[in-house]
Amino acid sequence: MERLAKMAGMNGLDMGQFTSCFENRARKDEVAAMQAEAIERGITSTPTLVINGTIVRYTGNYEDLKAAIEAALAAV
Are 23 and 8 a contacting pair, CB within 8 Å? Predict the structure, then answer.
């Protein structure tokens, strides 16, 4: 929780809402279902993008992302 709270704060989230949501766990089943679907599709890390059905593990390198998008556009 501490690590997630730190990241949430660094990204400007309302900490009251974050803590309430985290502790409530109302969406736990929904998140688990999305996680299972991602793993089923071969997505095992974040951030990961899916461009025209191709999994692209985004490393933060703009040029790599640009190349993946350009390749997807050329294939259409």
Answer: no
Q: Could you tell me which of 33, 37, 34, 8 has the C-alpha nearest to residue 20?
A: 8
Spell out the residues 6+ positions from residue 28 whose beta carbon is closer than 8 angstroms to its own.
none
Structure letter (DSSP) for residue 44: -
User: Does the reported pTM lie above 0.70?
Assistant: no
C-alpha span between 73 and 3 (Å, rounded)? 38
Tens digits of residue pLDDT in 11-70? 999 999 999 888 888 888 998 999 999 999 888 888 888 888 888 887 888 898 899 899
What is the domain partition of the chain in residue ranges? 1-40, 43-76
> In the beta sheet, which residues pair with residue 49?
56
Query: 51: which 2 tokens?
Result: 């461009």
